[in-house]
Amino acid sequence: MFLTILFTFALLFSSSQASVQDFCVADLSLSDTPSGYPCKKPSTITVDAFVFSGLGVAGNTSNLIKAAVTPAFVAQFPSVNGLGLSMARLDLAVGGVIPLHTHPGASEVLLVTQGSILAGFISSANAVYYKTLHKGDIMVFPQGLLHFQLNSEKIPALAFASFSSPNPGLQITDFALFANDLPIELVVKATFLDKAQVKKLKAILGGTN
Amino acid sequence: MFLTILFTFALLFSSSQASVQDFCVADLSLSDTPSGYPCKKPSTITVDAFVFSGLGVAGNTSNLIKAAVTPAFVAQFPSVNGLGLSMARLDLAVGGVIPLHTHPGASEVLLVTQGSILAGFISSANAVYYKTLHKGDIMVFPQGLLHFQLNSEKIPALAFASFSSPNPGLQITDFALFANDLPIELVVKATFLDKAQVKKLKAILGGTN
Amino acid sequence: MFLTILFTFALLFSSSQASVQDFCVADLSLSDTPSGYPCKKPSTITVDAFVFSGLGVAGNTSNLIKAAVTPAFVAQFPSVNGLGLSMARLDLAVGGVIPLHTHPGASEVLLVTQGSILAGFISSANAVYYKTLHKGDIMVFPQGLLHFQLNSEKIPALAFASFSSPNPGLQITDFALFANDLPIELVVKATFLDKAQVKKLKAILGGTN
Amino acid sequence: MFLTILFTFALLFSSSQASVQDFCVADLSLSDTPSGYPCKKPSTITVDAFVFSGLGVAGNTSNLIKAAVTPAFVAQFPSVNGLGLSMARLDLAVGGVIPLHTHPGASEVLLVTQGSILAGFISSANAVYYKTLHKGDIMVFPQGLLHFQLNSEKIPALAFASFSSPNPGLQITDFALFANDLPIELVVKATFLDKAQVKKLKAILGGTN
Amino acid sequence: MFLTILFTFALLFSSSQASVQDFCVADLSLSDTPSGYPCKKPSTITVDAFVFSGLGVAGNTSNLIKAAVTPAFVAQFPSVNGLGLSMARLDLAVGGVIPLHTHPGASEVLLVTQGSILAGFISSANAVYYKTLHKGDIMVFPQGLLHFQLNSEKIPALAFASFSSPNPGLQITDFALFANDLPIELVVKATFLDKAQVKKLKAILGGTN
Amino acid sequence: MFLTILFTFALLFSSSQASVQDFCVADLSLSDTPSGYPCKKPSTITVDAFVFSGLGVAGNTSNLIKAAVTPAFVAQFPSVNGLGLSMARLDLAVGGVIPLHTHPGASEVLLVTQGSILAGFISSANAVYYKTLHKGDIMVFPQGLLHFQLNSEKIPALAFASFSSPNPGLQITDFALFANDLPIELVVKATFLDKAQVKKLKAILGGTN
Q1: Per-residue pLDDT of chain D (209 residues; tens, 9 = 90+)
Q2: Residue E159 sits in which domain range?
Q3: Which residues bind Mn(2+) (chains A, B, C, D, E, F) (predicted)?
Q4: Which of D55, D125, D136 comes nearest E55 by C-beta?
């Protein structure tokens, strides 16, 4: 009798099983689409596709901003494809800063797990919201708004950011303005910064023109 | 003059016609994406792609649960791809039951067309909603919540389920727990069921470990 | 010990239970929003909110089109609010017809449960897809496209339509053109119909101007 | 020191840069999906992909409807793919008309930049909303509803339509009914138009059967 | 007989008519929701709700940036609520500039209707895309990315922007940094700008701290 | 001149500022909607609305499952409303377990910050994916699928879960089956569990009937 039940169950929904899309682990070798990457075949997926250890490793903060960001976006962690979320690790050494930036495609929640971080964002109405976050605090940064994080203490800080998209994007204002070939004259016109200031930061960040 | 109008109309919107995506019949030979399968070329589609006769055939209920589910999901009926809905047929012989299950990706509306069905679902707040449905009754099962259907009469029952996704998914709790290689010890820890109970159902449903 | 476990579980997730939105039964007394109606409080909801018997009653086809549509949209069946689907019943007496119409807000799957129905839709590319559906057949009508259903046999036909929205909308072309105060001259200009034809149908359908 | 900063920034987010999907310019050579076309590789994209000059050219209105529509949908302007909007240019010579039509996949906002246009739409409740628009006026046409535009003055009119989808679709009622092989008998049954009227318009618009 | 048909039709879909949400004109007196404002009752809406003349009036460019933006977002034009698009008018006098900014909630298509505009945006990968647009040209600015527009000729320029949201938002970088009470020290740390530069622009733009 | 610029900027976009919906902090006193709660007025919001310290406090694991979940969903942290994500803290004492459960409305990413956790989920195809996660590891649990977490070491474990919805929901299978008034007979029929097993767990978990 047991065998009969087994047989029955095995047949019961057999035709639908093959097509169920519980998950869609990204096949990064194919072209992206507006909804994300095409899926690898479920039969080729093991548990390792759903686990990522890269956020367990401290980023290298031996640099001038004394900070590092380690992403677990779809490019690094393909199993978040199509699931509407992703993560990143933030290491901020003493004096470290994640400069002013936006995520064009996602809202963010930041969780501080070590040290303290002074974090803030600016709304479209130009209102400023900033506060010092301590271990265990979380803070929301709504989609597309300028924000920043600074280590505000004398010990290294560690935090983890969660995003509402597998591919939140990241636009650092300094990079956008000074680290490319956007002509100095256009930067000056579009920002009202002094020409000397623009030249100085272009030189630092490797921009040309 | 008639020819002139014809000519005019033919030209009028000619450049846009080729690109209109009124529908996106799934090309199941290509990789799925988070939004569904890539589309077959519209020029290859005939009316037969939009019609499915598989729900007109009774499922085989000569089994121990005395029930059968016949899906018309995207895998069986590719023209629902991208359109946000699909269907299935439920046959319940006398004493038949569709055991506790969820659809991870869709809400359901069940329409009883023959006999009577005792159907119910359980909310996240653990509230139970169940009722005997008669011919012509419809009942909603919100997305992702556990639910079940039992034939509650002495005649066979027939019902049709509509889903809010071309690919609603289906997770039968008994299968998830007992019909695979999930170790008995893990099942016991995660469910508080007795070890003997777990072993018994694993044996019935063909699970290992 | 049992009591202890009970106590523990009861506390475990207590703070989240109250806010879980498993469903959102429409409070039709409040203003609609782009995502649907505000929700009634879950504590006021019984199983009867999730069950609707209105589709079990034949529509009155003693009229000139010999057909009737009985909707179970959000206005009639508030528990579909926010769940992305709804249903309707179609009764077509011998010779009955559901005239040319669109659903601006949803795709449709039609299930024939009695008799035969000649159904068709027209794509943006002006391609025509029509076929006679028999008992048990389902057919897809993609969102926003013109379609119609005719009883094609000598016995009454019965069908159930499922929609990919709680509020699919319904625009019958004849009503839109002839059953209101749209000036005859505008109808003529916008449709190239003869003035006499427009006048005739306006008279039949009660249009003015 | 400058070089050091440069080096630091270049490394900082290096792993995430390659995967950012700021945009998804359509690769029209691949199969469409429900969310739009697969993306061309960002490295192959220049500014020219984001600029379209086709709307700067007047459409040819030397025809009987004295009107022309020039689309900038995803097929003509691939960079709108995945971005949720597109445009079109409307030229209406004196006496010109854009006949009754719907966009199954988008709402529209029309901007008049020259002349005057009498525009209107009809709701599901068969309410008619029409008005003469002058230069600088904009008017909304909600998704899927029948609407039309007529030149209401003695000078040519020019307008630009914006749509809430890269691929709004376009179904002209006259084309759908009369410009294909939909049998006359079916048109008559589905619309209540006189057979002679149907035949006449089929002849004009090139329909068969 | 005519009366009979009329009567029949009037009854046919009567129960669904009242609930059809073809549109959802914003009731700005009620609280906004994540999907937009609650709807005004359809019975209170006339065609004037769907027409807006505010974009026909030139903005006042007698100011130092020699530019003006006139929005037709949901706050000014409530009928776009829930429809996924909106518009704005841009006036740029000779030498005028719309400074660097983002729209956190929408992609944009810009249509130039008079003069020439040098427009550009910067991607997350810091690639710069800019070009001079002439009358009739349209250009896409993907959601959330920094962009700017300059009058590049010796005559006034006029353009109309379409957005993929009824409420696209607008964050001008200069305002976000210098026109509020964000402490100078934080601006310096988050942007690497010189303190003197920050002070100067804060003074110009009215920022404090 | 500075004053003039200030004045100009202040006017420039004045009309649009008031309506920008950068965020929608939930007004929990109003009725929920399918897209989330209505928004509090932005002018009443301070930075404290965007910061939550509740996840910094260890949950009480002095109970029989030796575990606790502390949510930061919309009910506890109203600023995630409408932003598509939320978080929770998991404390697992030695031997602790989060029993088999689903989140009907969200996918989850779990981050282990202390100890080790044996976590797993089961797909619709009944495939089992489980692994021991160590400090710094993240694991994905796709929406709606059954999953569990066990402390697999001899020290307490701590983890933080991120969800792709402000209101992910939580359905614990044991609660759904045994902690309410679902009749024993129905549980037996819908699960194939032995009656004695059902009675035993109902007694433990406080279920009736």
Answers
A1: 343 343 444 444 433 334 458 999 999 999 999 999 999 999 999 999 999 999 999 999 998 789 999 999 999 999 999 999 999 999 999 999 999 999 999 999 999 999 999 999 999 999 999 999 999 999 999 999 999 999 999 999 999 999 999 999 999 999 999 999 999 999 999 999 999 999 999 999 999 88
A2: 47-165
A3: 101, 103, 108, 147
A4: D136
CB contact under 8 A, C169 and E22: yes
State how far Cα E165 lies from the chain centre: 9
Listed by number, the residues of chain F in 96-155 with a beta carbon closer than 8 Å to a beta carbon of chain B are: 97, 99-100, 102-105, 118, 120, 122-124, 126-128, 130, 142-146, 148, 150
**Residue type at F208 in one-letter notation:** T
Distance CA D91, CA F92 (A): 68
Closest residue in D to B12 (Cα) is D68
Side-chain-side CA neighbours of residue B45 (13 Å)? 24
| Amino acid present at F80 | V
Task: Say if A75 falls within a structural domain.
Answer: yes
Mutate to test the interface with B, among A3, A14, A16, A79 (most CBs of B within 10 A): A16
Task: Name the strands in the sheet holding D138-141, side by side, starting at the edge strand that comes first in the sequence.
Answer: D67-72, D86-92, D157-163, D108-114, D138-141, E51-52
CATH number (domain holding residue B134): 2.60.120.10
End-to-end CA distance of chain D: 80
Cβ distance C82 to F203 less than 8 Å, yes or no, reads no
Is C134 in the same domain as C182?
no
What is the amino acid identity at position A60? N
Whether residue F4 lies inside any domain: the answer is no
Helix, strand counts (H, E) of chain F:
5, 11
The verdict on D128 and D188 lying in the same domain is no
Q: Is A134 annotated to bind ligand?
A: no
Same domain, F123 and F147: yes
pLDDT, one tens digit per residue, over F88-126 is 999 999 999 999 999 999 999 999 999 999 999 999 999
The CA distance from C133 to C149, in Å, is 10
- Residue whose C-alpha is closest to residue A58's, from A67, A45, A47: A67
Q: Could you tell me if D168 and D145 are in contact, meaning their C-beta atoms sit under 8 angstroms apart?
A: no
Establish whether chain D is in contact with chain F, requiring a minimum of 3 CB pairs below 8 angstroms: no
C-alpha to C-alpha distance for C134 and C116, rounded to whole angstroms: 5
Confirm if C204 and E6 have CB atoms less than 8 A apart: yes
Residues B107 and B183 in one domain: no
In DSSP terms, A150 is beta-bridged to A97, A118
Query: How many domains does one find in chain D?
Result: 2
- Rounded Cα distance, A86 and A166, in Å: 5
Strands annotated E in chain A = 51-52, 67-72, 86-92, 97-102, 108-114, 117-122, 128-133, 138-141, 147-151, 157-163, 171-172
F165 and F182 belong to one structural domain: no
CA distance F104 to E170: 35
Of F9, F22, F34, the CB nearest to E104: F22
